Structures are given as C-alpha cells and as structure tokens.
Here is the input.
Amino acid sequence: NAGVTQTPKFQVLKTGQSMTLQCAQDMNHNSMYWYRQDPGMGLRLIYYSASEGTTDKGEVPNGYNVSRLNKREFSLRLESAAPSQTSVYFCASDHSANTGELFFGEGSRLTVL
Amino acid sequence: RKEVEQDPGPFNVPEGATVAFNCTYSNSASQSFFWYRQDCRKEPKLLMSVYSSGNEDGRFTAQLNRASQYISLLIRDSKLSDSATYLCVVNMRNYGQNFVFGPGTRLSVLP
Here is the structure.
C-alpha cells in the first residue's frame, strides 16, 4: 500500500524561485496537512484541509499557498522561495474520527540558496 | 514557553537498559496525548496513545499526569532497533489540525 506519497523528495532552489510540493493519499482520508520540521523544533503546521474543497492556515502559513485538488491530493506551493524556507516538509492525512494517528509521507527536503 | 517541551537528549543507553523520557505541556485544555517515533531521516509514525490510567504495549509504558501536565514514556529491555527520536504529541480538541508536536528526544541504544 502506498499510503501518503510526496514528491519531490529533494529539491534545491534559488531565492525567489517557485515550486510546488505534491502530496497524494490512497486511504480515503478526509483531512490532509502540510508540516515543516526544523532542527530543534517540533513539526509545525503550515496549512491543513479538513475536507475536499476547504483549506485553512496553520501555525506558520506565511510564504505558502495550498490547493486541495480533490480528496486524494493536497499540494503546497512556494511562490517566491526564501532561505528561511529551507526545511523538511511532511504531508500527512488522518481519518475524520481522529484516532490520533497521522499518516505521514516520507518527507521532502528543500534547500533554498 | 514552548507548548510541548522535551529533553532533546541524546540518551545513549546499552542494550537491555530501561530508559524513560519526559514531556511537559503548557495548555491544560489539552485533550489527547501520543508518542510518535521518528527514525533518522524518515517520517514520524504513531508509537502509542497515552491514556489517563496509563497504558502498556509490550516493552513500552506510557503515563499521563494531568495535574502536573506531564507525560512519560518508559522503554524496558532496550533493543538496538529502538534507536530513534521520540516525539511527544498533544492534541487540543481532538482534531488533527490541533496536534502540537514536541521537538523530540533522541535515543541511541548501544551494543
């Protein structure tokens, strides 16, 4: 089973460039999330989508946009990358019943020079 | 003050040792609690939920003290494969968007 699939796994950008991180889940989950993980800090929520057609800001949304394309897919876009956005990005999804189990993708390592 | 705090470690222990991790959270309204495990350069995965009465899953025991806003994870008879970072996670309102992750405690089990 694929679970949550993220692409790309690695990316190097120059300051000011744009890119989109793609995420897809095959578990029929309603909710999907984008987190970033930085050394010494917990995962921080960037944006989430509680259901198809809805998106909301998390703790650190500045500099990012998202699209919930359909139930399976949730993309994260950096319009003008900055060095402060160098991080590891994780997409996740969970059941609406919220058992506490978030299912994560393998992560995307982004470096902005 | 951070919402969820953990000792970053690393904890270096020999195989077979018992090791305990602590976690404190600042918001008394927190409703549910979890331990996740994250292997090096991998994604986090749920290890276990933490229930008010305490709970055990094999060699792992989780405890919650709501009065002190404190969560613990005890690992008995440590294995090499237990080497990972352990993330304390607190959920405010039982919705996924309200998960708050601690920075994690790194464990290295040595042969």
